[in-house]
Amino acid sequence: MEKDITARIRNLVGQLEAVVRMRDSGVRCDEQLTQLKAVRAGVSAVMQKIIEKELAQCTKFAERKQVMAKLFAELIHHAS
């Protein structure tokens, strides 16, 4: 997933560079706005991917924490 996110960000950089070229070349405003809307959608998609990744990691951490707590509780129970 990390490579996918990085690739998406690189694509966004390329799109923004294209918008700069469009502005320098005098391309119509509506065409520039169309490209910027695509960039905005791309940024939203990348943000979603990052959030999904972080949530998955947090969930895994919470599950491991619960397992460890259960193991410690069993150890304490058997030790007493």
UniProtKB/TrEMBL annotation:
<dbReference type="GO" id="GO:0045892">
    <property type="term" value="P:negative regulation of DNA-templated transcription"/>
</dbReference>
<dbReference type="Pfam" id="PF02583">
    <property type="entry name" value="Trns_repr_metal"/>
</dbReference>
<dbReference type="InterPro" id="IPR038390">
    <property type="entry name" value="Metal_Tscrpt_repr_sf"/>
</dbReference>
<dbReference type="GO" id="GO:0046872">
    <property type="term" value="F:metal ion binding"/>
</dbReference>
<dbReference type="GO" id="GO:0003677">
    <property type="term" value="F:DNA binding"/>
</dbReference>
<dbReference type="InterPro" id="IPR003735">
    <property type="entry name" value="Metal_Tscrpt_repr"/>
</dbReference>
<protein>
    <recommendedName>
        <fullName>Transcriptional regulator</fullName>
    </recommendedName>
</protein>
